[in-house]
Amino acid sequence: MHRLPTLLSGIFLVFLTSWLGLVAYPALQLGALKPFADADSGTTFPPLLGGNAVAGQNVYASEGCVSCHSQQIRQTSVTHSDIERGWGKRPSVARDYLRNRTAFLGSSRLGQDISNVGVRQPDAKWYFMLLYRPSLVCEGSAMPSYSYLFKVRKIQGQRSNEALDLNASDAPAPDSEVLPSADAKNLVAYLLSLRHDYPLPEAPVKKEAAK
Amino acid sequence: MNNEHHHQPGEQDQENDKPLSPWLIGSFMLALLWGGLYLGFNSGGFRQDVYDSNAVNWAGGGTATAQAPDPKIVGKRLYSQNCLVCHQATGLGVAGQFPPLVGSEWVLSEGAHADNHLVLLLLNGNQGPMHVKGQAYNNAMPQWKQLSDDQIAAILTYIRSDWGNSASAIDSNFVAQIRKGDGSQSDPWTESQLLAVPPVKNSPPAASPAVK
Amino acid sequence: MSEDLFRLHHTENGHQGQEDADMRRIDASLRLPTIILFSNAIHWLVVAALLSVVLSVKLVFPGFLGGIGFLSYGRLAPTTRDLMLYGWATQASLAAGIWLMTRLCRRPLGGILLNTLIICATVLWNLAVLLGSLAILAGYSTGVEWLEYPNWASAMLFLSFLLIGIWALLLFDRRASGHPEVAQWYLVAGFCSFPWVYGTANLLLTWRPIQASAQGPIQSWFCGALLTLWLLTVSVAALYALLPRILGSRLHRRDLATLGFWMFLLLGSWSGMDRLIGGPVPAWMTSAGVVSGILFVIPVTIIAINLTGILRRGPNRNGFRPVYRFLTMGLFSLLALGVLEAISSIPCISGTLNLTGFSEAKYQLCILGAVSFPLFGVLYEALPGLIGRDCWCKALTNRHYWLAVAGLWLLFGLMILEGFFTGLALIDPTVTFLNITSYSYPFHLLECVAQLVLLAATVTLGINLTVALAGDYLFPKR
Lengths: 211, 212, 478
What we know:
- The structure holds three protein chains of three kinds.
- Chain A is mainly alpha-helical.
- Chain A has a domain at 47-192: Cytochrome c-like domain (Cytochrome Bc1 Complex, Chain D, domain 2).
- Chain A has helices at 4-28, 51-62, 81-84, 117-120, 124-132, 182-192, and strands at 36-37, 44-45, 150-154, 176-180.
- The longest helix of chain A is centred in the first third of the chain and has 25 residues, at 4-28.
- The model of chain A has no long low-confidence stretch (mean pLDDT 88).
- Chain C has a single domain (23-470), classed as Cytochrome C Oxidase, Chain A (Up-down Bundle), CATH 1.20.210.10.
């Protein structure tokens, strides 16, 4: 290890192990995964994202939602708690992130895990309220307000049906309405698309016991 | 520069360094051994599709954890794609042209008709007249050996359980067996040839197929 | 002024004068680049500390500075982390690495041209950090954790690192002395690893993103490799280079150091997988994360054996040597980190404590303790030589040290406890998430205090540095 080339070769070889295992292997194997055609329903999983949801990913990225929210239901060999808590029906696998531009796995749960939030909460209006002022739907939440994703304007004629249903006390002004901007709508479309509950060959979904 | 050899702090000091303690070597070796064993037994055979490190040991069998969808549902879809044109969605066929499947002794493996006859019929097709529920039909049935064992098993399971039919399921191992045996011929069966094949029943597996 | 640690001759025999002249030449060759790198790094450290305070207050009062896009938590948090990683830690490691390498190789860095090149690269680096941070705050983050800078900013960082780092490798090749030291191996490994790690990760995740199903392991690999293969290698090199010299003795069991070096690199490069234990990756990756995390305690133990074996004998050089304290605290943090890493890689513990404040605590211990303290040590040791006089104010240095120590351990302790309690609550499905948020509230409140202490520490360091440099450093008095 006296000469630079010898030392460099040694370092290169050691680096190569993790590069092969954690970079090349995922890129070649996991990166080549295709959507799974489901025999039962005739659709492919993961489902395609609609146009707004695709744009919504960029909003999710730029707002840094991944700083507080994770999108991974953990494997049962490590913990059952994610599934028991009702955050998902089955552990997440690599193929679940296929349709995304970025895999927002997350490393912190200051907020809830949202990998299946499209299934747990399918009401778009709830999300708009949450983004506008989290305390409206989640008392005591530490989530910040994203009111800058909304526009406040005077009601012109009739109330717009996109306007948030705010109480008089929460509304900014008596004759104003709060409308979501395009960013907010795209983000909510993306959140509604979040689901990891479909079965895959490597991730079967247990049928729930008949009630 | 000078005659004295000055030791750098990072250099070997042959005089003062004691030989490595065997305890130290031993514990390092043990740790590495543990690491290797743990990796060996908890990696799901290093398969790409095994995510649960407890589920499978590296001796193989990764797909054991994957549970197949309900064969009846798969079978219904395949029936619609392949069989429906002739035998109809009601399974009643077309009078004089295509035999019915509802209550058919071929489908239900009644009398002289056995499970393997049904499988062979699907694999190799039929030529010449055929009697179903006392009626004669003289249309050639094409062969379906291009379908996989799973698919044939699913279709047969489906037709044996819908429209009031009730017979045991056919599993894909049975189909595979038949395909290799009598089903390996290329010509379609005539009715007499088919019934001449000794009957074989598809004995149901010990556990019922996973219905998910 | 205190005697130069890197002198070979410590008795009066005439060679001292020659050596001192050599050392002054080496200092002169890297004076400006090193000082500029360190100053910029500390500037970003102060900014990051301030933003960390804002973030911790936001966790307690979500409405604090709320409703403003530029200052929302989701944008400030990545900005702060990237400032710590790239603004402070990488820049200071570059400065420390170059300084150590020139000293260890006993070769000056080069002439005016090389100095200019490095200073230009430094300007490029800081411009990238500044503009990249503003871009994140403006909403142009890439969304990939630890790689949020827009593509043009990360490309600038990559390029400027190459322009600075290549010289460290060339210095090693042309070094004066024959036997390389342990510290030099670590430095070579560190300077090789950043371009490789940063380049690969950016290429596959932000510049030309591959399919997202593959991104998880690559991103985690990057996080682990950045911390262990780049930042920790420079800090460990500082420990190996300076501690024996301060204590006037050779390494204890130096023959183990080779094994320790290679294991450190091997396991460190796999260490990122501890974030994904139980994650959406094939089972073997989870197991690899478990094994590499637990076995990482081996190279850390070897470093401990090499260096703590000599700590019993106190420093026997005269003069004010703040570097000793900082280095020992850095070493202690590294040992604690190794043990913590091993414990947190056990699957059932990872299942409970991963993704909580516990992971954050590990990260903070690494970046604030194991990485930053040795870098502070190098700064305190290097600057007097670089500007030619005893420049540090004892009182401020003391204050910086104690505030930094208090801040680090307070923050770390609080985050560990927070992680512990929230982790245990999370595995109980009957505890609602809002309840868990309220459990962590008192910890977040106290973490604000810890961040304020850290801010005080970094501000003290900033003042200390400003006072030290206020003397005319371009024309040192002799």
